[in-house]
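Input.
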Amino acid sequence: MVEPGRSRNRKDVGNIRQMLYNPMEESAEESLFDPQNEGSNMRLSTKSEYAFLALIVLAENYASGYTKIAEIISKKDIPRKYLEQIMLVLKGGGFVRSKMGPEGGYKLSKAPSQISLAEIIRLLDGALAPVLSVSEYFYESSPIEQSQELMNIFTDIRNYISEKMENTTLQDLITG
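Output.
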């Protein structure tokens, strides 16, 4: 749900989410992205949502060169200061480059087909795993480790999410 006085392009965010997950039971999908589910590692942050929207614009303009931040803002209705912070993180992660001046802006550092969703989420949000004790990159001990059955279930969930995100690129998002 969008906060009062705050506009977001929910259709685009919904499309990203739809690409990330095969059709599942509605309640399972809703729980993955429930704003009340603050403690879950599986929740896609607003920062990641906005980053993906900005990256879609850059992917669409990849062959055209640099894209001005104002164009990204106008197409995806992202708050300027928030977008500037996101772009700095993406630049630091090696996913975008910038150029100053009248012909400047931002562009992808690699082809859209070479940037997976998993890379972006790991940069901005950390682990893809539902609990850190099954994370391959961000492992931390957790109480779940007391039950091998739960570890198996959460490992399966991690594997599904990881496979889907590793195999979905920005190119996939713009070509449908």
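The chain has one domain: 10-128+170-175.
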